[in-house]
Amino acid sequence: MDGVMTQTQFLPEAEGGVTTYALGEGEREEVLAFLAERPMHTVCMAGLIRDNGVESAHNRGTFYGCRNTSGRLEGVALVGHATLLDARTRRAYREFALAAQVSTRTHVIMGESDAVEEFRGHYADAGQRMRRACRELLFELRRPIEDVCEIAGMRPATPADLDLVAPVHAGLAEAESGVNPLDVDPEGFRARCLRRIEQGRVWVVVSEDGRLLFKADVQAETPEVIYLEGVYVHPAERGSDTGRRCLKQLSRELLLRVRRVCLLVNEENERAHSFYRMCGFRLRGVYDTIFLRLD
Length: 295
Known about the structure:
single chain; alpha+beta; Aminopeptidase; 9 helices; 12 strands; globular
């Protein structure tokens, strides 16, 4: 491989131009090495590549690389339903914005605040219009909480749990985006939920009377990091210690596999901030999420 640039963002730009193009399977290891320089911030892209490969319909988009005339990658982006970005130079963000402008299927742009601001400065004039925006905080856990009183029944979900899991996950998505995926793409959404269950990525606690008490999804996993999403506690259990016990127990299990667990929380959800801090998570970054109009 030609090599990747160092970790610091917005490096001085190398002489000469850059080429931006759709990445192929033959570049998989180089791309993963680039993303591994900043593992917590790139876990979602790296996780998709590890799960599906560089070129796959399951990625719901196209991976692009921005390479300079020395042959080095200056950035990697997924442009599609979710547009995700990691770059070392400002011109790489400009190139990715131009690529995204011709995409008609972008639903959301997500990334570190500075990266999204740089990207949107180039994208906004000719890209899809913004529908909703929110700021999110990146929380990280490196050491499990030891005083865990285990919850009986914590287990990976099975296909039989799909009818419990899918509506809850759709509701969480609607709370953030304003769109319920079960309304706009019920078959596709249920298929994606089922695939994640079959991958062993969804953890649940279900009561004896069939209520979903707790749920959390391993959205992405690399050798270094697990990214959680869709953390849910049944309304009747909120305010008790059930949610904390479940998340602490799950986190301890996951940290046997990786060095850190991370997740994003809406900046305005102060109750959730307190919940995650009580579970040992610490604030590590600020992200922006932009939801786009699809008309």
